[in-house]
Amino acid sequence: MLEMDAQKLTDLLRATIEPNPEQRKAAEDQLAQIHKIIGFVPTILQIVMQSNVDQPVRQAGAIYLKNLITNSWSDHESKAGEPIPFSIHEQDRAMIRGLIVDAIVHAPDIIKVQLAVCVNHIIRSDFPGRWPQVVDNISIYLQNPDVNGWNGALLTMYQLVKTYEYKRSEERVPLHEAMNLLLPMIYQLMVNLMNDQSEQSMLLQKQILKIYYALTQYTLPLDLITKETFSLWMEICRQIAERPIPDCSHIDDEEKPEFPWWKVKKWALHIIVRMFERYGSPRNVVSEKYQKFAEWYLPTFTSGILEVLLKILDQYRNHIYVSPRVLTDILAYLKNAVSHSYSWKLIKPHMVAIVQDVIFPIMSFTDADQELWETDPHEYLRLRLSKKKPHNKTRNKALSRINVGSATTGKVLKNAGVLPHVEKAWYMSMGAAARGYKWADVFKLSRNAACNIYGVLSDVVAFMPFKNSSIHSELCYLCPGEDLASHLNPQESGTEPSVTKWKRQLKYTGCNEELSYDSSI
Description:
Layout: H1 3-15, H2 21-34, H3 40-49, H4 55-72, H5 90-106, H6 109-126, H7 133-143, H8 150-163, H9 173-193, H10 199-216, H11 227-242, H12 260-279, H13 291-317, H14 324-337, H15 341-347, H16 351-363, H17 367-375, H18 377-385, H19 390-402, H20 406-416, H21 418-434, H22 440-456, H23 458-461, H24 470-478, H25 484-488, H26 490-493, H27 499-508
């Protein structure tokens, strides 16, 4: 299109964000009339790339471009008797493919988001057939010493990897061919960035880790990522997990998880946990082809990783802030680790401290919980039961950390003494309340944690000597008039244990000011 047309399109885009609805509608109608003209789409992209155009106008253009590419990039088959659906002309598509990576590199972040969607759609449609050059475009920017070009190149690379993230191994050949060139580049870039503790460096490190996670989370390509390469990436993740976080005490707790240093650590732990649970846990791997890899993984990485994870848990138990997502990943790793004798021997000496000083505080009913329960119980239940909240994920992982299968749970109960600590907290709570101590409310927080943990352990408790234990007397206080042995100990009653009901009751009882038993559950 002519240069004058570019100015006209700029004015139309500006009119689409005007507060006057009639003016807005007229601009939208005019754009709808001319959007099929050859040259229209590349001109929109050129407007988005112009730094001298107001950012709201550029953003409006980016959104318009994203919608056009999403809906009209590929050729559509027409049905009999219906008009041929509009698709962007191949001449325009070629121009877009030649400009889009440069556009992402130089665009501000708010526009990068829209352009990334465009790139993702183009890659799904045209890579590798019509757009093999995207790999070269990425590599040119990664090799350029100008740090300002790295973020856009990494974002484009991320869209490439995401396109193949969930595909089967045989469908990932084009990606693996591209990563033969790109993976060593981003590893070297990551090594260089590790010495830079600036915020910009942290954001770049996070993006690189996201790429590696998307590349490996469902399929680990052993022909692309050899044991030597895998070890290098695991060492990077271990160093990031161990790396201290700068002081962020000036930031509110709700905003601390967004602190770039915590986000990098989160993604490093995502990778560590994912590699262990899918490829590094003997007899639990997702495919038999990873069994030998898992047998190599366990003795090679377990000791170094557990040392770092236990240090982070020690910070948490000493009241040093740890991001909820980081804590969740650590508990997820430990959940898998306790099922292997090799890693269990390393965890066992720390188990009592983990239960008493980490899991119990996580499961406890806090003052903030109490305030929300009293002011808005519906909102409390919604937040508490939501699986999307990081704190709830941490609580769920803490529960599953204890109950990871009957054999492992039995080992934990027997060798680490989990249950006595649960009993102690519950006993102190009940005793303080019964005696009317003013500080009894303090123990109500522990009582809630005990309720939650008892609920998870109900399957195991059901098969332990029960009737003469202190647990029995405390449960009798909670559930008067019930034959608890008939529910929890089939050996004594000759009946099958109704553990589901007790698990549900014990799990949620601690929310209320007074403990009560509802026999209708």
